[in-house]
Design a protein that fits this description.
11% strand, two-stranded antiparallel sheet, membrane, disordered C terminus, 253 residues, rod-shaped, alpha+beta, Butyryl-CoA Dehydrogenase, subunit A, domain 3
Length: 253
């Protein structure tokens, strides 16, 4: 079950990476608003981070790259930097999460190392979510504010483009991937117990119920038989016969 959650989080994060790259490259951040008499004008204008595009009736869409970064409004200037950062962070998050999965053997196989890598991947996904949500929401706020600004003419008003909706959906995917990885780590931390050795290494053991101690009776050692000295007179006489000095001494006594 845990491995399936890791795979699901990685797939969601990869889809989020594709969405972040699409939002960064698409020019549909701001779209021309058709208001009142302008609805009969068959011309559409898109403004993105890198270019603006025009499309008229029965004419292929034409795009032009911005000549200078300073030509962009402040919201799009900030959005360009944040979206580039989001692409880099999300790419790194996908790589780190893939390395930290249990089914991979790229890093150390120890459980604590895997958990640290997964937590880092989840935090990177959340960081990618933030760096995507901020520019998309900021641009959407500027569009809505200018749309209801009475000082602007109708030709200056814009509507929310498709790239903004994709950006909001992508932020949700990145947030889901990060939360899944972090919750996965918290579950493992509560279900396993770590036993550390002298070399600062450890092994994860599942909790074991305590077993009552049993007394084991060891067999008592048997005493070894001692040799018995014979005190028969014949043995003494035979001994003295072999040793005359001892025999003489006995006779003298």
């Amino acid at each position: 079950m845990s491995n399936n959650l890791e795979v699901v989080a990685l797939v969601i994060g990869f889809i989020g990476l594709i969405g972040v790259a699409a939002v960064t490259g698409l020019p549909m951040w701001k779209v021309t608003a058709f208001i009142d008499a302008n609805i009969i004008v068959m011309e559409t204008r898109w403004e993105g981070l890198w270019m603006n595009c025009y499309r008229q009736a029965n004419i292929r869409m034409q795009c032009k790259v911005y000549d200078s970064l300073l030509f962009l409004p402040p919201d799009l200037q900030a959005a360009r930097g944040l979206m580039c950062s989001s692409v880099a962070v999300t790419t790194f998050a996908v790589i780190v999460s893939a390395v930290g999965m249990k089914c991979t053997r790229v890093v150390d196989h120890r459980a604590r190392t895997k958990h640290i890598v997964l937590v880092a991947g989840g935090c990177l996904f959340l960081l990618g979510c933030i760096t995507t949500l901020i520019p998309v929401s900021w641009t959407g706020h500027v569009i809505i504010r200018d749309f209801y600004n009475p000082l602007l003419i109708d030709a200056q008003r814009r509507e929310l483009g498709e790239a903004l909706y994709i950006g909001w959906a992508t932020s949700g995917l990145l947030f889901s991937a990060g939360v899944i990885l972090l919750c996965r780590h918290s579950e493992d931390k509560g279900s396993e117990r770590y036993v550390y050795s002298r070399a600062s290494d450890y092994t994860a053991y599942p909790p074991q119920p305590l077993q009552p101690q049993q007394l084991v009776l060891l067999p008592q050692p048997q005493p070894r038989p001692q040799p018995v000295l014979s005190r028969h007179p014949s043995s003494i006489y035979s001994y003295h016969s072999r040793h005359p000095s001892v025999h003489s001494g006995v006779a003298y006594l």
